[in-house]
Amino acid sequence: MDKAIIYIHGKGGNAEEAIHYKSLFSDCDVIGLDYTAQFPWEAKEEFSLFFNSICRNYRSVEIIANSIGAYFAINALSNQQIEKAYFISPVVDMERLIADMMIWANVTEDELKEKKEIQTTFGETISWDYLCYVRENPIIWKIPTHILYGEKDNLIPYGTILEFVQRTTSTLSIMKNGEHWFHTEEQMKFLDEWIIKSAK
Questions:
Q1: Which of 41, 55, 107, 142 sits 20 to 30 Å CA-CA off 33?
Q2: What is the SS3 assignment for 185?
Q3: What is the residue-level pLDDT of the chain in tens, covering all 200 positions?
Q4: Nearest Cα to Cα of residue 142 among 115, 168, 106, 119
């Protein structure tokens, strides 16, 4: 094989999810990125090492990234030789997401700055260092990208996705009644058809 597809999972996911995509890319090596990074600065280091070791073995590399995996990819891999990207429910504006979580948790920026980390009732830890990093490292993404978005995504507003699409070389496909997490039989069928069409 002279082409690799690298799969980057979202929060709570794992590299084994890459198996799903093997039948969709039968002429490529499909490899799940088994990463441990929790923060974008950790992902930047971990992803770069992985990609440098993988890329030298293939003529071309494409990526599939899910949710926060897409944000980590944008932050870590913008300078890599990636031919094409497929983003599923991507986090494309982390500052907006952190700001939204602060509103949901009724946390002010001054409180976060003082406490450094705040545990929320909905299971997320909001971090001052994370917010500062995001502000100091604005994303630049020039790789041709196909985005799949669920109409009923409760995490990423449609306007945020649209703004990213308009300032990058991206296409956007929306699944009616789709959610942030594509997991039902109907959603996975839609996802598979989107990938097949986008890969042409």
A1: 142
A2: helix
A3: 799 999 999 999 999 999 999 999 999 999 999 999 999 999 999 999 999 988 889 999 999 999 999 999 999 999 999 999 999 999 999 999 999 999 999 999 999 999 999 999 999 999 999 999 999 999 999 999 999 999 999 999 999 999 999 999 899 999 999 999 999 999 999 999 999 999 98
A4: 168
Local structure of residue 45 (DSSP, 8 states): H
- Bridge partner list, 31: 6
62: which DSSP letter?
E
Cα separation, 160 vs 173, whole angstroms: 14
Q: Do residues 32 and 7 touch, judged by C-beta distance below 8 A? A: yes
Q: Is the dihedral of CA 78, 80, 85, 88 positive or negative?
A: negative
Tokens representing 116? 């450094």
